[in-house]
Design goal:
This protein is of the alpha+beta class. It contains 7 helices and 4 strands. The protein has a 4-stranded mixed β-sheet with strand order 2-1-3-4. This is Glutathione S-transferase.
């Protein structure tokens, strides 16, 4: 039986966006899908036609069309992940929820499952906004400005980095290092010895952090080794190849 269960799936992917990890997830689930790619404008934002797909004009967006049912168009990476996992045999990428004999009991959840639920929301709720702040500060620092404003556009990002961004990056990276060190069953993934959907979800912001230079191997060896390993996995490689073929250019995460 086809993994799609009769559903047509279309992923709308903006270049240099978070859509790559959705492709990776669909590859792991053996789904057939159509990949539609869009180029950013000269100002770096999504083209107007993406608002015809979803009012916010963001990426990724996935549409699901099943026989005799209305089409669903879903935005937000975590929501897309949960929908795909719920409907297309995603159990293999979700840890066992309950300790044997404690099914349905509050507090009966496994450590692996509690981590999984946490990271499904932590990735976009706590970690990614910090990266967005860093990207915006880089734009202010490196962007064009009248000569008399250049001192300001240089000073403000440095103050933000010193007082806000770097202390928070240090806290988050230290936390992630400790999470990997204490992974259940001494596993090499966030939730244990098996790849889960949240490893896929977390991969993209970690790649961006590395590109921005805020994640460094000398300070976070375990986290960087984890990221290096994720990028060697077949699903990750297939997702990058699919994007490169669709866009006609080498993959750039940002």
């Amino acid at each position: 039986m086809c993994a799609n269960r009769g559903v047509k799936i279309v992923l709308h992917s903006l270049e240099r966006s978070r859509a790559q990890r959705v492709i990776w997830l669909m590859e792991e689930l053996d789904l057939a899908y159509e990949l539609k790619t869009y180029k950013r404008g000269a100002n770096g934002i999504a083209p107007p036609e993406m608002k015809q797909i979803h009012p916010l004009g963001k990426s990724p967006v996935v549409s699901f069309s099943a026989p005799d049912t209305p089409q669903h168009t879903i935005a937000e990476s975590s929501v897309i992940f949960e929908y795909l996992l719920d409907h297309f045999q995603g159990q293999k990428l979700i840890p066992e929820r309950y300790v044997h004999g404690k099914e349905g009991q509050p507090g009966g959840e496994t450590d692996a499952w509690m981590r999984y639920r946490y990271y499904m929301h932590y990735t976009e709720g706590s970690f990614t906004p910090l990266l967005v702040t860093q990207i915006l500060m880089n734009i202010i620092k490196d962007g064009p400005a009248p000569f008399f404003l250049k001192p300001v556009t240089g000073i403000v990002p440095r103050i933000v980095a010193k007082e806000y961004s770097q202390p928070n990056f240090d806290t988050h990276f230290g936390f992630l290092e400790s999470q990997l060190a204490s992974s259940p069953d001494q596993g090499k993934y966030l939730c244990g010895s098996q790849l889960t959907a949240v490893d896929i979800l977390m991969s993209y912001p970690l790649v961006v952090a590395l590109c921005l230079g805020v994640l460094r191997k000398e300070k976070c060896p375990r986290l960087c080794a984890y990221l290096d390993h994720l990028q060697t996995l077949d699903g990750y490689k297939r997702s990058v190849k699919k994007l490169e073929e669709a866009e006609g250019q080498p993959y750039k995460p940002m």
